[in-house]
Amino acid sequence: MRLRILDSGHGFGTKALFALIRTVSRQPVLDVIKLVKYRPDFYGGPMSAVTQEAMRGPSTWSVGDRELMAAFIAKTNQCEFCTKAHSAVAQGAYGDGKKVSALLSDLDTPAIEEPLRATLLMLVKLTREHTVNADDMRAVLAAGASRKQIEDALAVCFSFNVIGRLADAFGFFVPGPKAFETGAKYLLARGYR
Amino acid sequence: MWDIRQARKALTKRILEGDGKASPSERRAAFNNSGLAEPLGTLVDKVARHAYGVTDEDIAAARMSGLSEDQVFEIVVCAAIGQATRQYDTALAALEAAIEKA
After folding, report:
1. In chain A, where does DSSP find H-type helix?
2. Into how many domains does chain B fold?
3. What global pTM score does this model have?
4. Could you report the per-residue pLDDT of B44-92, keeping only the tens digit for each?
5. What domains are there in chain A, each with its CATH number?
6. Which of B2, B5, B6, B8 has the highest number of chain A CBs within 10 A, making it the mutation to test binding with A?
7. CB contact under 8 A, A42 and B59
């Protein structure tokens, strides 16, 4: 972590919480947790409300679909931390680890339904090029995604284009797979609040 | 959709208009990725366009220019949220255009 305050500038109560997490999970506290718990009135609190709504709020996309979108956005941004974190959550949500890693390397497979494939391709373009046009959106609509589904996917895209940038700018430590598995279980059980 | 709009609006209002260690004008400039002097301009532009390219030296240069860690924290947060907001607004406008001329 490039800013010392994000690593160890938390108040006493938060430090006690981190000690508890380390003891119970036997894993390091993920840097993303340290970020949202630092001065949470500024960023962590209001951002968690956005992310919770995007990832766990009402939507016809499943939790697995939305976590897969997060993993794709992270991969496009070349954010190693977020790609590993949300691949693990998507795998847990789908109950199928091979499906997620196969999709992340190749979307051209019958294993994915057309509306989700078209939506992922649009999110990747938006993330990579910072823009999309009406023709891109027409392609997603023609593939069978509804207006509401596209809006929901854009909310996921917003959240993870924020979080991925912060992970890379602040230099999040990338731990081993066990830590991400533990984090994924927590996010599936408790969400982002 | 209503809930996400409200939540996003509250987030933006908080980081740009609420209390902070960086000035409101610096936070706004970081959000807009526009009008910041060096070395902050480079850091903010990297966060917006290719955050994976941010280095220890970029953060150190911002600190050496006289900013505290809390100020750097706020400015980087504003830069990230600003870029994600521009992407989101552009995409929603494209969706509107696609539906109007379907």
Report:
1. 4-8, 12-25, 31-36, 44-56, 63-76, 80-94, 97-105, 114-129, 134-142, 147-170, 177-190
2. 1
3. 0.97
4. 999 999 999 999 999 999 999 999 999 999 999 999 999 999 999 999 9
5. 4-190 (1.20.1290.10)
6. B8
7. no
